[in-house]
Amino acid sequence: MSAKQIEKLIEGINILLADQNQYTRKLTRMMLMNIGVKSICEAADGIAAVDIIRTAKPDVAILDWEMPMLSGHEIMRIVRSPGVYSNPHLPIIVLTASAHRSRVNEAIRLGVHEFLRKPTSPGALRDRLLSILVKPRPMVQIGEFYVPKPRRSATQSDLAPAVEC
């Protein structure tokens, strides 16, 4: 893809940015605007995020994992329900302060496409967006989970809950 095509792709997407912290939303919104995103919806809690996903139909959601009303975990359970929820294929990036291995594994198991740790950079955010937009992965059912097709071959044990010592 040429730089011009990538620029047009980024300009044309509609993004949901959900984070309880107003400062974090403002900072992330500025990063998104600086990389060329034109349409950004914001939510301060999980219920507002689910409502925006349902009504505004964003192309990508960027979610904090720890939000009031509904957590990222609960949002993933709702959104990744084919036949129940209207857009179970929505690409989701988690942007969170806690990047413990167990949290990353849980997010991936629940169907998150990408994972970023706060604070992030415009370059890292752009790279994650491009990985979703330029090389989209189809959604697949693996056991009870509806997830993006793994980049490598996944087995049921790869999706089993991680045990933290």
Care to describe what's here?
The chain is α/β, with parallel strands linked by helices and 165 residues long. It has a single domain, classed as Response regulator (Rossmann fold). It is built from six helices and seven strands. It has helices spanning 3-11, 22-34, 46-56, 72-79, 101-109, 122-134, and strands at 14-18, 39-43, 60-63, 92-96, 114-117, 139-142, 145-148. The chain starts with a helix and ends in a 17-residue tail after the last strand. Residues 161-165 have low confidence and may be disordered.
Largest sheet: 5 strands, parallel
Tell me the helix content.
25-40%
From N to C, what is the helix and strand string?
A: HEHEHEHEHEHEE
- Biggest sheet strand order reads 2-1-3-4-5
**Helix vs. strand class:** alpha/beta
Tally the helices: what do you get? 6
Question: What general form does the structure show?
Answer: globular
What is the CA-atom radius of gyration, in angstroms?
Answer: 15 Å
CATH architecture: 3-Layer(aba) Sandwich
Mean pLDDT: 90
